[in-house]
Amino acid sequence: MREFDEKYCMEQFEELLKRDSTTGYFREAQEYIVKEIKSLGYEPYETHKGGVTVDLGGEGNALVVSAHLDDIGLMVRRINPDGTLNVCPVGGLYPFYCMEENVRVHTRDGKVYTGTVCMTPNSIHVTEEELRQNMADYRKNVCVVLDCNVKTADDTRRLGIETGDSIALEPRFCMSNGYIKSRFVDDKACAAVLLAAMKCIKENGIALKRKVYFYFAQYEEIGHGTTWLPEGVKDYLALDIAPTGPDQNSDERKVSIFAKDSRFPYHWELTNEIRDTARESGVDYVMDIFTPHYGTDGDGSVMAGYDIRHAAIGPGTSNSHGYERTHINGLKNTFALTMAFLER
What we know:
Layout: H1 6-17, H2 27-39, E1 44-46, E2 51-57, E3 62-68, E4 73-79, E5 85-90, E6 102-106, E7 112-119, H3 129-132, E8 142-146, H4 153-158, E9 166-169, E10 174-176, E11 179-182, H5 185-203, E12 212-217, E13 233-239, E14 242-243, E15 255-260, H6 268-281, E16 285-289, H7 297-303, E17 309-317, E18 324-327, H8 328-342
Parallel strand pairs: 3-12, 3-13, 13-17, 14-17, 15-16
Antiparallel strand pairs: 1-2, 2-12, 4-5, 4-9, 6-7, 6-9, 7-8, 10-11, 11-18, 15-17
């Protein structure tokens, strides 16, 4: 089993978290990963719409291994009369998962303002009892309060904020006793695992037995991250989180092999090859099914019409699309299975 460079992986995870990348707003995160890929000795290719592929070498029967860089977040829907922002979700961000979160508003002119997601009214001590019972609803009682002295919609517009601006949530990364807590473990942790795999391949001079591309995708959270693939791809392996729950096998300390998601089953034979690899290499894994609200970039490639086999693996992760948690052993096992499959 190849050695996992935990220090490098976590450094890269934190660097990616520092760069806001709510779906559609990707340039800063993409520029960082392009620079890091070059520093590892590879030549990245940037797709026209956003996303980065890397040819790792090898010949024939091409395999793509992906992780996505985009995050769920918010967008300014309109400016309220009191200068607060009415917002709508980008990706699957439910309002109860972002209440009281600090945010950064990115305008289309490149300005950045901070604020907080709040319910209206927002002070419990001066809110009638019946209003306290209301669920958060983007359409009715959720807004972003800016850290600016604004009292009217015109005040806010004078800052340069307008409908369509991107809003990123604060990740709040921390690590304790091996547990990793942060927003956007989905999927920046897996992107960091891929960078660690690239470093391992380069430093150990590993000769791949087939053509391999790594794909750092954008737009996964809205379904079209990898609807374009490099020429000649036959197999697709997505690295994404494995949500935990009462009916799930997934464990934060293990890597999950996906049998099915909410769209359809993963390819039977390719999934069996990955399972066999896990068994042979001693990786701590489980098989799991993820319904009713889950999919990966591999699904998008299949639905785009590519004649590929697709599979998915990833670290067990709790609180998906909220303040997520995984464990360093989950990343370690994901790395180990990825490397073992690449060398199979």
